[in-house]
Amino acid sequence: MTIVRTDKDASARTMTFVAEFDAPVNRLWQVWEDRQKLERWWGPPGYPVTISEFEFAPGGRVLYRMVGDEDGERLDGHLVFHSIEEPREIVYTDVFVPSEGGEGEPDNRTVVTFESTEHGSRMTLVCTFDSDEAFEGAREFGAFEGFIACISQIDDLLSPSKGNS
């Protein structure tokens, strides 16, 4: 996998990630639609994810928890899928749930697109934040670097040598 482009645009309140993989689109799509595969890459290294609810369908959601290996910090969240057009596009919102409980507020809407390339596939994620405050909060939290680290784990899931053909 190669991350071919990243961009943080405060004026548009977007973070963009473009990665290319040596696997066809249908295998790349599986890292989203397969609960076990999503668990293996969604959290950045050091913050493994456990998924307690998984419905990969329009209107469905994924409830997840990331727990820090070193400090035990717990981050709960959920994805809500707005549209899924296999194998071309996924649109979802990501919501962190406050540690004191409650539903949390969506702070970004993400569009993930998939396309074939000469040597495999390309995945593009464009996260658009609801407000300048949400964008700045995500930037300060390290979401940009965290998402790069998460995406970088996908290659292992696509490797035929790992039994994921």
TrEMBL record:
Belongs to the AHA1 family. SUPFAM superfamilies: Bet v1-like. Residues 22-158 form the Activator of Hsp90 ATPase homologue 1/2-like C-terminal domain. This is SRPBCC domain-containing protein. InterPro entries: ASHA1/2-like_C, START-like_dom_sf. Gene3D superfamilies: 3.30.530.20. It holds the Pfam family AHSA1.
